[in-house]
């Protein structure tokens, strides 16, 4: 009977999908949106004016999504003027007072004026205000966590860590102390693996409070989507499920999208590029000339910056190692006085000609899957971490902020597919770690990384855990929207 009623619903569910206006969040959310479009949903992707302009400028995004008749981009303000540089610590500093009120108002307007009406909202877990708006207008909401589940769980547990007296941290000698109050991580999480804002002595820190607030609020939604697989984060998923009964682990999303696109259209199908920077594909031609597994790829994502001194230490370590390197240095990501940062990049480029290749922005997925790549020197942003896992590339971890410190701990001691260089930037250590991963312990790391890649890739194949979880999510959204229509 229910089946009959549902089939009488004349239109597909309309989902509004709303990412946080940052690169690492947008690309994963676009992947999720495309997977739901493949399932036949009508999709409205709500982007900021600023990011949409860049997406359209550097990618084939508009043409790509034309093939999904129900797919539409809408843009709203992120609360900042279009010419704001959006660099440095702009995001967390401006979020609550400047960005949130404007985005909240715009979201409300889009929902109220939407035709056909929106049946379900999927919002980034950090956009807690979307829950208030969803309740106001009576639309089911699912939060999507683009960061790692381990870090999400640490964020959730911070009040308990404080309550147990394990925070604040008492100086540098305390950094290796184990944190025992995060269930599931008692044996490996140290003070130095906590998000960097936990290093402040002030347990009333406003950024810490904001992140804890958003995490706890996201668990009040109808469900939570996580970009991971049961096989990667099973023990932590079990912990999160004690706080939210509907948790869908559907990742790694970029790999799941590749599986479903290939099944639908074959290998030659063009895949979406969704970056906010102009990609320099010349590095692929350079990689084509290098022997198999001989090059280390070095990149620190879309937000992290480094000082001139750190770049020089890193560069000397790479240069003195026995390995060639492909290094990404984003424009304006090296901090120095009066253009010193840019000058040093030019100088290093000139000096490294026969040992390395430097670009502003690389086609990262293609690079990680290139046979010449044998290791990834990464900041452990969650997307980069998952892309490395899927490609079976061992990592050297140099985390900077947010979820990256927890992620590097998981990579090195739980998954055992890399080394953690946390809190250090010394050319001798860089050299030693690169030689370990690329030469001296090459086979050991290659073996563990390829085993991890195998189980992860199986999870997104037909019958795998993430594949089945996505099917459940799709079905549950259909049921949610059908219930909303028949209310
Ligand atoms: C940060 C966080 O650290 C991350 O964990 C969180 O989920 C989002 O915010 P970011 O610094 O952008 O993210 O890192 P990451 O999550 O790794 O995302 C970077 C993305 O940019 C990756 O998908 C990567 O493939 C892409 N990239 C990076 C390129 O395409 N080219 C490059 O040269 C560098």
TrEMBL record:
It comes from the Eukaryota. Keywords: Glycosyltransferase, Transferase. The keyword Transmembrane helix does not apply. Coiled coil: none annotated. One of its GO terms (molecular function) is UDP-glucosyltransferase activity. The keyword Lipid metabolism does not apply. It holds the Pfam family UDPGT. Belongs to the UDP-glycosyltransferase family. This is 7-deoxyloganetic acid glucosyl transferase. It comes from Gossypium hirsutum (Upland cotton).
